[in-house]
Write a structure and sequence with these properties.
hydrolase; helicase; nucleotide-binding; 6-stranded mixed β-sheet; Rossmann fold; Helicase_C-like; alpha/beta; 5 domains; 15% strand; 32 helices
Length: 922
């Protein structure tokens, strides 16, 4: 039972090392017949699946009595055993003042303030005790360890490719690990190692640990193998040549999953999506989330969540079991009542960045049980992924498709959930209301993981766990969830990292891009084929034969009104056509028809969430915060502006503003403008907030490249002009129409700061408007710093702040061709039409442009805008598919379903002549 031998300082060939270990055991311990009987009696009296803490306490007592100084390293399988043994040691030594010990715990997901002190020597007479997982086998070397107690167990994850379930369980270590643990004793002098298992058990160990390729998901490996395999060679045949090849069924299931998420086509060839997933240094499904967020324009929040999932959970295990409730309460606070573990990750990261910018991140991490090192790693991963997206062309340096445009919907939680749902498919959960159970396609009984915020916290001892579980399921407002990972504990599967999602999100984004031909079953056909016998309804009797069946795959189907089903199918087809188009040409901008599809999707998803009374948290789209020493605080500016009665301060902290609350003054795609000798620092800083490339890990790579390639920077200089001119970019003509009618405008946070800074200097501010993609300037107006009490829905975009009053001076169309001779010296001498929102013009150029607008063509009235909007709506180029929506029916924006029942009016049809003409063209 007790093994004692001198550890070898040099372990070469594993077979030789194993033989030396066996010889040492045989030579130093002769087992008598009496000892053998005692050993047999002991092994029959204990459960070898559990750790014998009593035996470890006895060994520690023996070590205390040896009077030999040196630290004790105890290998344990996991968190529960570490905490249990630590409490036992504290209790045993409580009444023994002569025994002075210092306890340390080492665990990959535990973080204590004194963990670094484990490497420091202790005072004479104090015994250092280190309770560790296998992290101390090779990752950590502690020089003063003299004694090692090896329990012989380790916790490892194993993956079942048939069910898609991950199992974390304790098992016996390998012979190589046993020898490695023995080598931890006496790094600087001879030591002792106690193995808590018999020689027979040691001989039954495997020589080496099971290779990772045999116990983890390999779909990422299969995708990479496609690049290395010869042409037309199956992935399974290529991986079969590995030294330890995975079973054929495991490889086949991984390839099937890649086909399910559209990374591979039916012939195992890489799709456009698969090629982009190969470029991303993350797991394929996480990469799909990122790409969907790019097209849906909610990049930043999804990027943060994906990095948390790709690395590790930022929440650490508490050092005291009693603190588990505190961890649960901290997570519940971050969840904002959204029934989402993904929201917890996003909010925790944003709160950590805020705490870091304010200088108290250590206290924040300690109070909320968050790992500071994990958060720093997530920041670096975000930077790496952003760099890859730029290299692939998904993020453009300016204009449509830049980082600001790709975050237009970042404040809309329903859109963020849709991107996450698309990536997690087929990891979906449905609620069986009759049995009050969670079920998946392969599991009939699923529970939420103990770390999930969807678990209900017990209020008193009267409530059983089963009762709380049923109460939580009953309180969920809809029947669908998606999860990140399924883990099995015993016979029960636990879903890890879950989020509630609406049925409409499932119908639009789950499943393959190409649905089967029988995806939509009309009422008569559905009844004849028996589809009315099963579904996700609580009460099938409520549905009559007039319902259509909308089928996503063999497990997911919905019963809806026939017209609603057709509309959803058409919108789904439009979305996937747009997504494939974006994958094929990442750097190509979106057309107005593309933008209409995205707006429609965002609108119906928000309406669906509102119909189910789901929460929409404010501020979730805020950008990452760089640490800036020279940042002009909006609060400071507001205080200065409030001193003047004629200027009302802007609301910089409006919760509906996606980016104001972040306090960010520059972003990786916005290069910091360096002041030159012609610009005084004071006047420059008063109108622009600068940021150093080193101030944010996110901004470093891009800014460093850009700054190394440019030796000069042009920027606004201080002039004697009393007027400052700014370009304002509008997303749609409708926004300009409302602005002309109501004399208001809402600005992004960056533009708002520039304008208020100019007003503070006593300058008159002229706004020159241009609709993106129109090829024209539409007029100019005078900015007034007075807030407007109006907030039309056209100005409710996530990236817009408070509405201000403006005075339109001239409303006229002037084409870009008429202004091509005007170059802006404050924008690297680019033509004036090549400007982003908030770009300031050199005064003489701005004055010339306004004169051209005054001499321009007919006034851009409300009626002409309506006519222009109709022309653009019905004359844009068609998609490749020939659905009714692709032939110009922009009524989708008004007629798509907006509630859980998906009931809306039918879209207006064009007259028969136009329809015939379109079909002839098709």
């Amino acid at each position: 039972m007790k093994r004692q031998f001198t550890p070898s300082y040099h372990v070469g060939n594993i077979d030789n090392a194993e033989q030396k270990a066996n010889n040492a055991i045989d030579g130093q311990l002769e087992i008598q017949e009496e000892d053998k009987l005692l050993l047999d009696a002991y092994t029959h009296s204990i459960d070898e699946e559990k750790i014998d803490h009593d035996l470890i306490i006895c060994l520690l007592t023996r070590i205390y009595a040896s009077q030999e100084e040196g630290a004790v390293l105890i290998f344990l399988p996991g968190y529960d055993d570490i905490v249990t043994l630590r409490d036992r040691i504290i209790n045993e030594n409580e009444n023994k003042p002569e025994i002075r010990v210092m306890l340390f715990t080492l665990h990959s997901q535990m973080q204590s303030s004194d963990q670094k002190r484990v490497f420091r020597p202790v005072l004479p007479g104090v015994r250092k005790l280190i309770l560790s997982t296998n992290i101390a086998e090779t990752s950590v070397t502690i020089n003063d360890v003299l004694f090692v107690i090896d329990c012989g167990k380790v916790k490892e994850k194993s993956y079942d490719s048939l069910t898609g379930v991950t199992q974390l369980k304790a098992g016996w270590i390998s012979k190589a690990s046993a020898i490695q643990r023995r080598g931890r004793a006496g790094r600087c002098r001879p030591g002792l190692c106690y193995h808590l298992y018999s020689r027979a058990r040691f001989n039954s160990f495997q020589k080496f640990q099971v290779p990772e390729i045999l116990r983890v998901p390999i779909h990422e490996l299969c995708l990479q193998a496609k690049l290395l395999a010869p042409p037309n060679a199956p992935i399974a045949d290529f991986l079969a040549k590995a030294p330890d090849p995975p079973p054929f069924m495991v490889t086949r299931n991984a390839v099937t999953l890649l086909k399910t998420i559209d990374a591979l086509d039916p012939w195992e060839e890489l799709t456009e999506l698969g090629l982009h997933l190969l470029d991303m240094p993350i797991e394929p499904r996480l990469g799909k989330m990122v790409l969907y967020s790019v097209v849906l324009k909610c990049l930043d929040p999804v990027l943060t969540i994906v990095c948390c999932l790709a690395y590790r959970d930022p929440f650490i295990l508490p050092s005291q079991p009693a603190q588990k409730r505190s961890v649960a309460m901290a997570k519940r606070k971050f969840s904002c009542d959204t029934f989402s573990d993904h929201m917890v990750l996003l909010r925790a990261f944003q709160a950590w960045q805020k705490a870091k910018s304010e200088g108290h991140e250590r206290n924040f991490c300690s109070r909320n049980f968050i790992s500071h090192a994990t958060m720093e790693m997530i920041v670096g991963m975000r930077s790496q992924l952003l760099g890859q997206l730029r290299a692939s062309g998904f993020i453009r340096p300016r204009g449509s498709g830049d980082i600001r445009d790709l975050n237009s919907n970042s404040e809309i939680w329903a859109v963020i959930k849709a991107a996450l749902c698309a990536g997690t498919y087929p990891n979906l959960i449905r609620i069986d209301r009759d049995r009050q159970q969670l079920i998946t396609q392969k599991e009939s009984k699923v529970r939420f993981h103990h770390s999930s915020v969807l678990n209900k916290l017990p209020v008193s001892a009267k409530h059983s766990v089963a009762t709380l579980r049923k109460q939580m399921i009953a309180e969920l407002p809809c029947d669908w969830l998606f999860y990140e990972e399924m883990m099995r504990t015993g016979s029960i599967a636990h879903a890890h990292c879950c989020t509630l999602v609406t049925p409409l999100s499932i119908a639009l984004f789950a499943g393959p891009a190409r649905l089967p031909l029988d995806a939509l079953h009309e009422p008569d056909q559905a009844r004849l084929e028996g589809y009315m016998e099963e579904g996700d309804s609580e009460d099938d009797s409520k549905y009559d034969n007039q319902k259509a069946m909308f089928k996503i795959d063999d497990w997911i189907s919905f019963r809806v009104e026939p017209e609603i089903a057709r509309l959803v199918l058409q919108l789904r087809q439009k979305w996937h056509a747009l997504f494939l188009k974006r994958m094929h040409a990442p750097s190509k901008g979106l057309t107005q028809a593309d933008e209409a599809v995205i707006r429609t999707i965002a609108g119906v998803l928000v309406a669906e969430d509102q119909a189910l009374n789901l929460q929409q948290p404010a501020g979730i789209g805020q950008r990452p915060r760089p640490l800036m020493s020279d940042y002009t605080s909006p609060v400071h500016l507001r205080k200065q502006m409030s001193a003047s009665p004629s200027h009302r301060s802007p609301n910089y902290f409006n919760p509906n503003n996606a980016y104001n609350s972040s306090g960010l003054s520059c972003y990786p795609d916005e290069l910091p403008v360096m002041p030159n000798a012609a610009t005084s620092p004071s006047s420059y800083n008063s109108s622009f907030s600068s940021c150093s490339p080193q101030s944010s890990p996110l901004a470093m790579p891009f800014n460093a490249i850009q700054m190394s390639s440019k030796q000069e920077f042009s920027q606004p200089c201080v002039t004697n002009s009393r007027i400052r001119y700014f370009i304002i970019k509008a997303n749609t003509s409708r926004v300009v129409e409302v602005s002309m009618a109501k004399n208001i405008w809402a600005f992004t946070s960056t533009t708002e700061r520039k304008l208020m800074s100019a007003v503070k200097e006593g300058k008159e501010v002229i706004l020159i408007f241009s609709i993106q993609g129109s090829g024209h300037f539409q007029g100019f107006a005078r900015f007034t710093p007075h807030l407007s009490d109006q907030r039309p829905p056209e100005f409710s975009a996530a990236n817009l702040g408070t509405c201000y009053q403006i005075e339109w001076i001239k409303k006229a169309n002037i084409p870009f061709q008429s202004t091509r001779h005007l170059q802006n010296a404050w924008n690297e001498n680019r033509k004036v039409q090549i400007s982003r929102d908030g770009q300031e013009l050199e005064p003489s150029v701005g004055e010339s442009l306004c004169k051209l607008i005054v001499k321009g063509q007919p006034v851009f009235t409300s009626d002409s805008m309506k006519s222009s909007k109709r022309n653009m709506a019905y004359s844009r180029e068609n998609y490749s598919d020939s659905t009714p929506l692709s032939r110009g029916q922009m009524q989708w924006e008004q007629n798509l379903p907006s509630s859980s029942s998906w009931k809306r009016k039918k879209p207006r049809r064009r007259n028969r002549a136009n329809k015939s003409q379109s079909e002839t063209k098709g």
